[in-house]
Design a protein that fits this description.
Blueprint (H helix, E strand, L loop, with lengths): L2 H22 L5 E7 L3 E5 L6 E4 L5 E6 L3 E6 L3 E8 L5 E10 L6 E6 L2 E7 L3 E3 L7 H23 L12
Parallel strand pairs: 1-7
Antiparallel strand pairs: 2-5, 3-6, 4-5, 6-7, 8-9, 9-10
Length: 169
């Protein structure tokens, strides 16, 4: 065997061990965080996190709270990733985020041909907009919700809401 061949073989062995050691001792590890669409999950962050990165913000959103608590909200179906970085830009936490359909046994999905409508039936069935519902149903339900919210806000700001002042006797 030539000296050059032995040297390359030894160098390859050292590189392979270094790569294996770096992989095994890496502080970041991947797990999956399951979130239901339109719901939130709390996640305790490791110390020294300065930056949070969400791979696809159309699937999930994250909001940092005091005390190292991260609120992860499911926005759309699918999977993305979440990275927590320290001040130096090193990844100190890595999670896969999987957003699945709405939770609960009280959810009823009605198909009218290719059109879909979703209802929350707890205990009475009421319209509930969910990704994948037909456009007309989604828009009509969203419009009704917006109108109700606007009326409630205008009533509260004009003094039509409940008063906290005690009654005079």
């Amino acid at each position: 065997m030539s000296a050059g061949f032995r040297r390359r073989r030894r160098l390859f062995g050292i590189l392979a061990w270094a790569l294996l050691a770096a992989t095994v001792s890496a502080p970041a590890r991947a797990d999956t965080l399951n979130v239901h669409v339109d719901q939130a999950r709390l996640l305790k962050l490791p110390e020294h996190v300065t930056t949070i990165v969400i791979g696809n913000p159309l699937i999930a959103d994250a909001t940092l709270q005091s005390g190292g608590i991260l609120v992860v909200t499911g926005k759309g179906y699918g999977a993305t990733n979440l990275l927590a970085l320290d001040r130096n830009g090193s990844v100190i936490m890595r999670k896969a985020v999987r957003v699945v359909g709405p939770a609960g046994r009280d959810l009823v999905v009605v198909y009218k041909g290719v059109d879909r409508e979703t209802y929350s039936c707890a205990p009475v069935c009421q319209p509930r907009i969910t990704l994948g519902d037909s456009t007309a149903y989604f828009t009509a339900t969203l419009s009704q919700t917006g109108t109700r919210d606007s009326q409630a806000q205008s009533s509260a700001s004009s003094g039509g809401g409940a008063s906290a002042a005690p009654a005079a006797h």
